[in-house]
Amino acid sequence: MSPERLLALLERVRSGALDPARALEELATLPFEDLEYARVDQHRALRQGLPEVILGQGKTPEQIIGVAERLLLAGHNVLATRVEPEAAAIVCRALPALEHHAVARTLLALPHRPSPIGGAPVVVVTAGTSDLPVAEEALVTLRAAGVPSERVVDVGIAGLHRVLEAVPVLRRARAVIVVAGMEGALPSVVGGLVRAPVIAVPTSIGYGAALEGLTALFGMLTSCASGITVVNIDNGFGAAMAAIRQVHVESGLA
Known about the structure:
This protein is of the alpha/beta class. The chain is 40% helix and 16% strand.
């Protein structure tokens, strides 16, 4: 149940338009619904401002459909991440309200569009085009939360002039999410150029010694640019959530 729906429910009880016993039935799904294969956290939007997000990885299409249906019926928006194309096609046939973002590997439904959050955007930067799936996952997540965002693509340090050209955009940002594979050096460069918080996302892009993202992860963790936050490998969703928490605090929504 979203905060808006709960407030409307309480107002109906206060005005006498809804019997308290009926209201209790509507609240019966709090704090979660047990679907046997999943316990859907219907209380999360009240605690954190955003509903539960479905991790599609490892779930069958039927399981994704089941959880998404319960979230929609409870009045929530729906975001599912790490959804493979075949599964996405099945889920979208069952739930046409869901929009498939192929590059981001996400499904999104916004029947209750979040109130736009004013202020500067969160800027999502990629070192290379190969990092786009992770960056797009972050961008879809920011959209689901109503956080304004911009993208800066393919500005890796192999051509340092490219990121320098983007400095005016980066310096306008309230936070910068930097997505990079290989040696993972781009967050250090950006961290030395901007005042805003930098959230670094290592990706699994790179040849042998890149170690499927471990080299980038270690490089970001040992960055000489102070104060950089580092999330897990390929975790664009986690980076966006870190930025969203910051934006909520700044905006008085936390």
